[in-house]
Amino acid sequence: MNSSRRLFTASLLAAPFARAWAQGYPEQPIKMIVGFPPGGPTDSIGRYLGKEMSATLGQNILIDNRPGATGLIGLEALANSKPDGYTVLLMPNVTTVALLATDKPLDIDKRFTAIGGTIVQPTVIVVNPKTMDVKNMAELIAYYKANPGAPYTSSGHGSPSHIVMTVFAKRRGLNVTHVAHKGIQPALLDVMAGRIGMIITDASQAGVHAKSGALRVIASGGSVRSTMFPDIPTVAEQGIEDFEYEGANGLVAPVGTPAAVIQKLADALKKAVESEGYVKMSLQGGNKAVFSDGRTFRDALEKDFNRWARLKREAGELK
Q1: Measured distance between the N- and C-terminal CA atoms of the chain, rounded to whole angstroms
Q2: Taking the complete model, does pTM exceed 0.85, yes or no?
């Protein structure tokens, strides 16, 4: 018997045992890695999903924050985990895009197995009006022209907001300074403190501060206006066609996790995403709860990565 036939026969014999093992899953708590600090938008989403999925699966889902490198530290932790269904990662699209900063290929099917998508997050362009008194994108451009080297901040080097701002500035001959942080929360704190004037973030993070007047939303970065800021036009509505950026995230598992386990996790995730509480929480944050199956989420990440790869090539060296 040749090697390929032996492997085929072995897989046939192993399949019933794998299904039987999966029927008893989960028998212990599950760890959900979040590659960003506690208190941020990804962390909040993870904790809500973990609570809802725990009720369905009958086991606790414990959050393990691994902040840094726009989520790549969390992705590495997932890659070093056993593919047994007891470790998963809540991964936003910014993490796959961050691979571009290290000049690494996506190799999506070698890095993880997608379980499903959970949310779409429109971004907003935000300023501290005491530091940067601008009210729209045209005034933002004028500000950077008048103040060469003025800073903006992001969740990390190589993040989508870093790439899109680099291209945005390059196309207009602007000199801007990027200040990278380990997550959106510490970056936003720098803007709140007035040390940095501008940030691109998700609507939920800007909401309370914008309503109090501490921050000012000057545009929605997504393809449609944020539900939290319906009166604020998109960048496209303001005549800028090269700034569209919206977030999305989903749940992934290590490569090699049994298909039956992936399906159990996907079923629990779908129920959590479609729950009344999660839908309400998403809307309150200016986001949209959207479940997509593993294949759809995987393909969306790959398409998104390819788009940002083209933008990064145009941006050149990221500083």
Answers
A1: 57
A2: no
